[in-house]
Write a structure and sequence with these properties.
single chain; 7 helices; mainly alpha; Cytochrome Bc1 Complex, Chain D, domain 2
């Protein structure tokens, strides 16, 4: 399934996940990172080439952001605030500007569902390994 053909039911689930995630936990960056479970290393390794091709231009090869997009290691992206559904939705349909002054994020075209899953696993694994930076 291509993300451009995202079904209505999946979109509803993603929006609900966003709403639930908005009521997430609080804690230090290290405490929050420690709560992230380890991800399948094969899945994480598979995306080591995909992330630079699709996300790094804005979010940085080291996930620490660029002048075009925020750091994925910011505490704003901890799972209790921006859950995996938020990432799925942002990739599928883009995201309006919020938290940052980079402007809206456009959708990322041409990714399969499994590629999106792998990107999210990669980001979460990097968050688990490196912890979270304070906002902003």
């Amino acid at each position: 399934m291509r993300w451009s053909s995202l079904g209505r039911g999946r979109l509803v689930v993603a929006v609900l996940a966003l709403l639930v995630a908005a009521c997430g936990s609080s804690g230090s960056g290290d405490e929050l990172a420690a709560e992230i479970p380890a991800h399948n290393p094969d899945l994480v390794e598979a995306v080591e080439q995909l992330y630079p091709q699709t996300c790094a231009v804005c979010h940085g090869a080291d996930l620490r952001g660029t002048d075009q997009g925020p750091s994925h290691l910011s505490v704003v992206y901890e799972p209790g605030h921006h859950g995996d559904g938020a990432f799925e939705l942002a990739i599928a349909i883009g995201s309006r500007q919020h938290h940052w002054d980079f402007g809206p994020m456009p959708p990322v075209e041409g990714l399969s569902e499994s590629q999106v899953e792998a990107i999210i696993a990669y980001v979460r694994e990097q968050q688990r390994l490196h912890g979270f930076e304070p906002y902003p």
